[in-house]
Amino acid sequence: MGFATDCIHAGQRPDPTTGAVITPLYLTSTYVQEGLDKHKGFEYGRTQNPTRFALEANLAALEGGVDGICFASGLAASNAVMSLVKPGQRVVVSDNVYGGTHRLFTKLIAPYGVTFDFLDLSDAAAFDKTAGDFALLWLETPTNPMMKICDIKGLAAIAHRKGARLVVDNTFMSPFFQRPLSLGADLVVHSTTKFLNGHSDSIGGVAVCKSADDAKWLKYVQNAQGAILSPLDSFLVLRGTKTLAVRMPRHEENSGVVAAFLRGEKKVQKVFWPGFEDHPGHAIHKSQASGFGALISFELGSLAAAQRFAPKLSLCSLGESLGGVETLVCHPAKMTHAGYTQPERDALGITDGLVRISVGIEDANDIVKDLAAALAAV
Ligand SMILES: Cc1ncc(COP(=O)(O)O)c(C=O)c1O
Q1: Which residues line ligand 1 (CB under 6 A)?
Q2: Mutation pick for ligand 1 pocket among 190, 194, 195 (CB with most ligand atoms within 8 Å)
């Protein structure tokens, strides 16, 4: 089946009892059993839920994996994936990943004896020369918020040579634009909160596995840790993915208009958007993704400039998160990446004047007009 067809149908069939076209929202904590060893495959709501199962099958199909395992948030999914790593092992992470991922790894998991190295992975060949041993390679591409591009195929080859897994956080691109498992990754993680749900009304996460063994383990972890995606959130994300294939092209079209506008503005010192031909890694991105997504970062030069800009937005909302149908603007240093120390942010280029925009699917002219009005105050 084609991608758009899978978005709408994968994992779902008309309800066998009623014929309902939409997978029902199963709000039940438990299931009646016919005998001590006899049940319909459903025992307890944390372990099994038909709405969540439908979403998990849907997301596995969209990413091309054997199974998807859904969690209460993107970070809960990342935390579960990290259970594949043992104390004493080393994990290499692309630098400037989402601040919450950095915080989870460094503050909560590192104390259990896992070593994390945050490295610039945008040059796979250079990394190969100094990589050393590691058990897991974790990357975002484009990275959040500097839009650095990592070569998924090249890095998968390096990881596999070392007997390590490659995990890609594919939240920014969604499987509509980029399918890391087909490029050699072993697992894909998403904050379903973002493009997969697409409507800014749910928090959730998923890990999609290439191997049945990893999927089996993560299902075990999902039940054992208990950080499951709720039935309502599963229902909402399932509804969200139905329109993924029509939302993403529109996000991208609008982001092209907004990126070009920002680049032409005198008060904007630099624009980071993978769609520019001179964006570092543009060619690699084009070779592994079918589009540029909806995230743009731009430099206003100072905290004072960003502080003058943000409150003047009217249509665009100042807020954390991304990937909703509405345009969202955030200030990484004070918001999404506040978990990094100032020196860490400085080293990554996450300046106090950096602004990130998640371009929505409103009329592009209205978004541009709103940004122009706010820039006039800078
Ligand atoms: C790239 C990326 N990965 C993971 C997360 C964490 O997801 P959640 O907020 O659903 O826990 C985020 C959140 O912003 C993100 O941007």
Answers
A1: 73-75, 98, 100-101, 140, 144, 169, 171-172, 191, 193, 203, 205, 321, 336
A2: 194
Res 96: pLDDT: 85
Q: C-alpha distances in angstroms, 177 versus 159, 183, 248?
A: 23, 13, 8
**Domain span(s) for CATH 3.40.640.10 in the chain:** 3-241
pLDDT the model gives residue 340: 86
Q: Looking at ligand 1, which residue's alpha carbon is closest to its atom 6? A: 74
CATH topology of domain 3-241: Aspartate Aminotransferase; domain 2 (3.40.640)
Which residues in the chain show pLDDT less than 50? none
Of 81, 82, 96, 101, which is best to mutate to test ligand 1, by the most ligand atoms within 8 angstroms of its C-beta?
101
Q: What's the rounded Cα separation, in Å, for the pair 340 and 338?
A: 5
Residue 330 in tokens? 């955030």
CATH of the structural domain 246-376, one choice from 3.20.20.140, 3.30.70.20, 3.90.1150.10, 1.10.10.60: 3.90.1150.10
What are the pLDDT digits (tens) for 312-366?
Answer: 999 999 999 999 999 999 999 999 999 889 999 999 999 999 999 999 999 999 9
Query: What amino acid positions are annotated as catalytic residues?
Result: 46, 98, 169, 194
Is residue 38 within 8 A of residue 189, CB to CB? The reply is no
* Residue at 271: amino acid letter: V
